[in-house]
Write a structure and sequence with these properties.
Shape: globular
Strand content: under 5%
Oligomer: single chain
Number of helices: 9
Structural class: mainly alpha
Order of helices and strands: HHHHHHHHH
Number of strands: 0
Length: 188
Amino acid sequence: MQPERQRQLSTAEERRETVLRTAIGAFAARGYFGTTTTEVAKAAGISQAYVYRLFPNKEALFVAVVDHCFVRVRASLEAGAAGARGSSPEAVLSAMGDAYAHLISDKDLMLVQLHAQAAAVSEPAVREAVRAGYARTVEYVRGASGGDDRQVQEFFAVGMLCHLVVSMDAGAVDAPWTRTLTAGIRHY
C-alpha cells in the first residue's frame, strides 16, 4: 500500500500571485474597462467570490496588476544596469533601454502599461498607481544611471516611442515615416 500523498494547499499569497498573473493576460487583452472579474476568475480557475476575497474590487485588482508590472519593469532595468558595459550615464541608460526593449517583447506587459495609461485619464486610483510607479521608476533610473534630467527624460521618451513602434509593428512597414520613427529604436 502506497502512502497517501498530502494535497498541498496554496496559500492566499500564492493564489493572489496566480490571480495577478492571470489578470495581466485578461487586462492586456481587453483593458481595464473591458475586463470583468468573472473573466479573471474563470481564467485563474477560481470563483469570482474568491477573487473578491483577495481583492476588494476590480479597481484594486487592476491597481495590483499595474504595481506588479512596475515591479517587473524595475527588475528588468536593474538587470540591464548590472550588465552595463561601463558606468557612464550613456552606457547604463543604453543597457537599461535594451533590457526594457526585451521586456516589452512580452506583449501582455506592454499592453497592460498602455491600458493603465488610458484608464488613468478617468480613474483616480489607476492614475495614482501609474504616477507612483513612474515616480519610483524615474528616480531609480536617475540614481542607477547618474543621468541628468535631460538624459532621463530622453530615456523615458524613447521608451514611449518604443511602445508605439512595437504596438503598431512599425518594422513591418517599409515607408519613410516608419523608418523615421524606428531609426535607432531597439525592439525585439
